[in-house]
Amino acid sequence: MTNNPELTAWIDAVAALTTPDEIHLVDGSDDEHENLINQMLADGTLEKLNEKTHPNCFLHRSDPSDVARVEHLTFVCTENAEDAGPNNNWMAPAEGHAKVDPLFKGCMKGRTMYVIPYLMGPYGSPFSRAGVEITDSPYVVANMRIMARIGRRALDHIEAGGSFVRGLHSIGQLDPNQRFIMHFPEQLMIKSFGSGYGGNALLGKKCHALRIASWQARTEGWLAEHMLILGIEDPQGNTSYVAAAFPSACGKTNLAMLVPPAALEGWKVWTVGDDIAWMHLGEDGRLWAINPEAGFFGVAPGTSLKTNPNCMNTLGRNAIYTNVAVTPDGQPWWEGIDGDKPSELIDWQGRPHDPANGRAAHPNSRFTVAASQCPSYSDQANVPQGVPISALIFGGRRSAVAPLVFEALDWEHGVFTAAAVASETTAAATGAVGQVRRDPMAMKPFCGYNFADYWTHWLTFKDKSDKLPKIFHVNWFRKNAEGKFMWPGFGDNMRVLKWITERCENKSNVTKTPIGLIPNGADLDLTGLNLDQKVVDALLAIDPDIWSTEVEAIEEYFGSFGDRLPSAMRRQVERIKRELTDSQKAA
Length: 587
Ligand code: OXD
Ligand code: MN
What we know:
Blueprint: H1 5-18, E1 22-25, H2 30-43, E2 47-48, E3 58-60, E4 74-76, H3 81-84, E5 89-90, H4 93-104, E6 112-120, E7 129-135, H5 138-147, E8 149-150, H6 152-159, E9 164-170, E10 180-184, E11 189-193, H7 198-201, H8 204-220, E12 223-225, E13 227-233, E14 239-245, H9 252-256, E15 268-273, E16 277-281, E17 287-290, E18 295-299, H10 309-312, E19 320-322, E20 325-326, E21 332-333, E22 366-370, E23 387-395, E24 405-407, H11 411-419, E25 422-424, E26 436-438, H12 451-460, E27 470-474, H13 494-504, E28 510-513, E29 516-519, H14 533-540, H15 544-559, H16 567-586
This protein binds oxalic acid and manganese (II) ion (MN).
């Protein structure tokens, strides 16, 4: 099967444990894919969508209990509990294996065991990393084929001596009471049981490219982040790149594929990635980013020609849809898509849609599609050394408190700002929606080790280079007293990106506040946007009383990391508190 002895031994051991009927080494070929699709059409795992309107597109309906990431069942298993930190569920590695191995015993009987060699990152990049996922789910194989570079070339990488992450996955009986997503960063290993949902089952994505990779990145001096990467081309044809972190389902895919408003003539946005960035310091002292993924696993509801035309023009062919609704003529449908709601629909559970049963599409329904189909796909997306990053942007979904945009004072303050990000929860994970929680660097569910050590790692960069990107914080989601969004968002976010690129060239003036540098309203290009000056002022306002309460909440949160918290974080809290008190006195 392979000439790599380590891989052979592992495949044999897994086969002995799981006792599949057959073992299939995935080569990633078109023939193999076609066979798998036909098999899934025959057994009902997939349904063919309208070939005329959506060529080569398929619908998968998951088990209704298996529709999102399960953070409460996700564990980081390190020898020392402190290394996983209060931000992770922890188990000792021996206990973690003992918990899941009995579940894997005989679980592939009557099934085929697929062995998927995959590469995260462009072929030929020194920053790309390999993995092998063993799974009993053909749906996982078909999705991995879109999301990663799988098959022979990935195996070549492993056989040439590269290390690889081992990921063992079984859907089991899809029983929520027998569901675990276990990470063993010290052993470069993942064991995922009982779920077929993307974030739990496509192991190259969150499990490898974030949780395991963040651990490796700390050891090796780089960064594995929950960030989109995009290029901003100005009217003169110069392109600069930014990476931006937002919690799940907060618009990363929309921002990555943004179409600038007509009034900003000549500006263009190029998509490098929509979810994950691996960043290394280059010899020139700049931070260079690659997108380890090859596809998009995006949230369908809310996606339309109005909110994300590039995405709509990406996902109409060769896509796998999961848990969307379907029209009588076999077209995928979700809340927020263009056009009127059809009078008849089949809902995400395969029933005739009845609003009494809730929405037609699941709020976390998804599409999986190749990034190369995106009209705004950057011609630099597969360049081995990646793209040089000029700005890092962090944000959350906050209806109050955070202004539209501010710039951090320096790297240390930027790391503090990113560590203090908070956001209202969404349907991408099971649990209550709309509750504010701290989501540092948008990595709360994905950092494979103690956040305090992670912030320390981020802070080390300031002594390694004086050419680091500037750091910004944005909030597209601020609401007015009537509960309405104040900022139009979507394509108009280009106005904020434009200001950010100008600031990276040290153009335009700013006002210094305790929490950071705020644009002068006049420097935000609002041409063609009918936005009242009062709204602009409200969007940029910093209320010292509200921020005093916010800083206390941040301090309390940081307190949960005890002595491991880097002193720089305490220093920033003290400075901001002092300056807020001074500004309250002055008012
Ligand atoms: C995702 C997520 O699917 O963040 O990207 O949940
Ligand atoms: Mn994500």
